[in-house]
Amino acid sequence: MLKVVSISLGSSSRNHTVETEIGGKKIMLSRLGTDGDWLKARQLFCELDGKVDAFGLGGMDLYVYIAGKRYTFRQAVRLIEGVHTPVLDGSGLKNTLEKHVINLLQEEGIVKFVDKKILLVSGADRFGMAEALIQTGAQVVFGDLLFGLGLPFPMYNYQTFCRVAQMVLPLITQMPFSLLYPTGEKQTVNTPKFTRFFAEADIIAGDFLFIKRYMPEKLERKIIITNTVTAADIKELADRGVHKVITTTPEFQGRSFGTNVLEAMLVALSGAKTALTAEEYLEIIQRFEIRPRVVDLRVA
């Protein structure tokens, strides 16, 4: 049996393990949260190195890509230094699978993006999704400065977003990741912020932990396009009035895992010892018929 373990700086309350079969291969997917404990995460990587087929890195990015350029987070590199088992942070799928999913939703009429108002909570973390949303003709608000840095500056223009990202990422990637992204128990705390941008949007897209941390009490008739959600998250979104939840990763026994888990799974299935190319990811996605999860909460 193939074994994939995601080691996350996130809350251990979201831990989960499933066994499934894909393409005739049995695979175990596990998510281990360390509640923001960097040293514990480092210890787990070292202890499990060579004992699993691939690692996911959760609660932290290793890389982000903007306009074809890769930016590396210094703290993430230190976390996995010396680890020989492949470590995947999901960035490869964010630039392939998520773009593919947006196009699929449009082509199959599941979501009509043209002229829809979309709040993308962090475009730098989801550059493939950002590109695809712009190409659909949607009106995208980029929330990177709002939710990443707490600055009251929404960005309404794709070129502006790219220029700002290219200016600030060389600095941001040297900072402790906990200053940029909720880790540990912060992932379970909801503190509504910049709520008018949620209210004005037809669709809220991007990393679920950003959405969960800052979303308002009411999200009536909204569509959420995101990644890792549990059954409890789905119920909470339904209670807030959300009409539809779409995860770019498929459902495994009642929940969707993060892109880091799915990317690690694809690498394990391929037998590779490193990240795949964009073309290889798309080929294996299509070969194993990996599709997004769509939950209509009006009938759920």
Describe it.
This protein has 300 residues and is an alpha/beta fold. The protein has twelve helices and 15 strands. It has helices at 38-48, 74-79, 91-94, 97-107, 127-135, 144-148, 158-172, 195-200, 208-214, 231-239, 259-270, 278-287, and strands at 2-8, 16-22, 25-33, 54-58, 63-66, 69-72, 87-88, 117-120, 139-142, 203-205, 223-226, 244-247, 251-252, 255-256, 293-296. The strands form four sheets. The protein has a six-stranded mixed β-sheet. The chain has a five-stranded mixed β-sheet with strand order 2-3-1-4-7, sandwiched between helices. It has a two-stranded antiparallel sheet with strand order 5-6. The longest helix is centred in the middle third of the chain and has 15 residues, at 158-172. The protein starts with a strand and ends with a strand.
Radius of gyration: 18 Å
The assembly state of the depicted protein chains is: single chain
How many β-strands, per DSSP? 15
Question: How would the global form be characterised?
Answer: globular
